[in-house]
Amino acid sequence: MKNYILTGCDSHDKSMLLKIAHNDGAPQMRSFGSDREGRQKMTEHLKRCAKEVGGAEIVFGYEASGQGFGLYDDLKEAGIRCLVLAPTNLPRSPKSERDKTDEKDAQRVLDEIRAHVLAGKELSSVWVPDPQTRDDREVVRSRLDAAEKLSAIRIQIQSLLKRNDLRRPRGVSAPWTKPFRAWLLGLSKAPSALEAGARTALSSLLRQVEFLEEEVERLDQEVDRLSQTERYREPVQELRTLQGVGLLTAMVFLTEMGDMARFCNRRQIGAYLGLAPTTYESGEAQDRKGHITHFGPWRVRRVLCQAFWCRMRTDAKEKAWFERWAQKHPKRKKVGVVAGMRRLGVRMWHRAFEAQQRQPHLFPPSVPPKGGDASLRPRHRVGAETLAGAPPD
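Above: the chain's sequence. Below: its structure in token form.
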């Protein structure tokens, strides 16, 4: 049997608790700091352990979290095999949820790593994006966050008007038009229908709206600049040929999905986007489907929903398909929307995959997911599977 030093880690902002074991032996517990100095000490300790047992291979595992992939990068640079586990797929029981400690969390990760390395158990690890993709995500996500904050401030202004029993005057037909903004500006200055405290609050909210609108515009320019780089120029052009898909939707899809070659078929795309139904089957109760799982990148689901409704306004075939669905399933229109989002996501995947395949120097071949066959990767945009009489994905 090959020698291994297996390590399960429970990582936090300031500390890391490790369970270190040699093959199937009893684990030892060690603690290190989470800063670079602590990671360096941890790496040196693991290499000493490997040397003591005759040059064993080090396999390190930890759960993915909001701390990013800095630990993964450091271990990879040190020549240590690192696996980042998906927290949602780790086995948990009601008892373990009530009796949770750092030591038990590290032991659970170690058990998963050991079963994978020594017994061949399938491991639910996450795909680690390359540094360039991570950096590009920061720009696109900042744009989405700024727009979300702007929407929240606008809702606060509408709530303030309702609390003070104010309605738009005649001539102001819609919110956030020029007449509406002029009316709000007048309300924020004395004399107006608002009391002094409400005027102060409205003035503050209006300043925030102005700042966030300028910030959204600046970030739009940055997203546009990013889309013109060699990495994204051709995939964005391909995606924007689809009705309803704009620049921001295309960039969110490309940065969040990353390397399209890591997916083998449309079912994997639907599952990754969280647009696959949940399943509960037991005994005679078979084929029980529930709501979608909501796993995966929620930002992609959001832009897919917006793009689908845009397609409904601009694509006659898409609108006709949805109307047939709504007529056949009048109480399940939301299911039709989700189905449309999934179909659009699969179409975008095909287009982006083909564009990336034409840029092998930017997107080197990926290893297909375990259980996936590389021969099942898309060769054409149109597949054989259809959904409820809809056009092929």
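The two ends are 47 Å apart (CA to CA).
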